[in-house]
Amino acid sequence: SIAIQKGVSLVNGDADSNGVPDWQPGGTLQYTLDGQVSNYFEMKELLIRDTLGDGQTFKAGFQPTIVVKEG
What we know:
single chain; mainly beta; 30% strand
């Protein structure tokens, strides 16, 4: 079996310069997907898809990364 958890953080977006992040248009969100695979299963050609919310766009030039850890 496989389990995936999605997280989000605000990378920039302090429109009023008060030091507190503003969750509003113009801010940049960073999503993370953390997952676990049972050691009783073999995964081949795993495909994970995610959908952006309404009004969100994918930043041109962004290079997604993937990290695989065993253990």
